[in-house]
Amino acid sequence: MRLGIFSDVHANYEALSSVLQAYTRENIDTFYCLGDTVGYGGSPNECADLVRETAKVTILGNHDAAVAGRMDYSYYYEAARQALDAHAQVLTQTNMTWLRGLPYEHRLEDSNVLLCHGSPVNLEEFEYIFAPEQARDCLPIYDRLGHITLIGHSHLCKVFALTRNSVEELIDPSDFRGHPPQSFELDPNRKYIVSVGSVGQPRDQINRASFTIFDTEAKRFEFKRIEYDVSGAADKILRARLNRNFADRLFLGM
User: Fold this and answer.
1) Rounded distance, CA 105 to CA 116, Å?
2) Residue 138 carries which DSSP code?
3) Which residues contact 10 (CB under 8 A, 6 or more apart)?
């Protein structure tokens, strides 16, 4: 099976459309979304409609939870709160009901894959895994992890290889910015936590949408990037009267 896994669309229809078009060339059997379909961007309903149609399972992200009334987001900074409030006001009842029913995690038992939005340690806390230090917090639940655990949330592409008592971040030695290898095969003696990056708001100084593929038979994982209409996505943010920074950062990949 070839799985298409993507995350953090953040209401960016232009990026999501480009990713789904790119996937048509990849012979994908099943799609999974790791959450945060809404928040920040200018097309919450259009993106929710597309994700609902495309993904077999979508995981609950923190922005999804906030919009759906499933978490307290009063501590978020003002611009983020305003975007979440705006999305809650315009979402269709169908999309709101869908967000309210999304799971915190999903396990593909036949391929030993675990899907969640943030760290699998405390699912409802949406904790980040940026670095080996955060990945090390997962060692006490080593037996609960999949052979590969796929997460979003950080908007970064990261790979951490774990044994029962160690964590190693896999980095492409030819990339001075510390990005992971574009593809790798799973070692049967290690487990992996992979952050799949963001479709709609990458934060690794690359302004191309991120999406990934996992071949369950070959045990091979691939990172992919695709250009999209950044100007069009930014213009929708401005026309929705959301914070200008949400538009500006799309050009920078920040």
Assistant:
1) 5
2) T
3) 36, 37, 38, 39, 40, 41, 47, 63, 198, 199, 200, 201
Helices (H), the chain: 13-23, 44-54, 62-67, 78-90, 93-100, 132-136, 230-239, 244-252
Q: Half-sphere exposure of residue 201, counting CA atoms within 13 Å on the CB side?
A: 25
- pTM exceeds 0.90, yes or no: yes
In angstroms, what CA-CA distances link 206 with 37, 209, 214? 20, 8, 22
- State residue 138 phi and psi, 5-degree precision: -85, -10
* Spatial separation of the C-alpha atoms in residues 120 and 44, rounded to whole Å: 26
The size of the chain, in residues, is: 254
Give strand ranges (E) for 109-219: 113-116, 148-151, 157-163, 166-169, 183-185, 191-196, 209-215
* Topology of domain 2-252, CATH: Purple Acid Phosphatase; chain A, domain 2 (3.60.21)
Closest by alpha carbon to 6, among 49, 59, 63?
59
- pLDDT per residue as tens digits for the range 100-147: 999 999 999 888 999 999 999 999 999 999 999 999 999 999 999 999
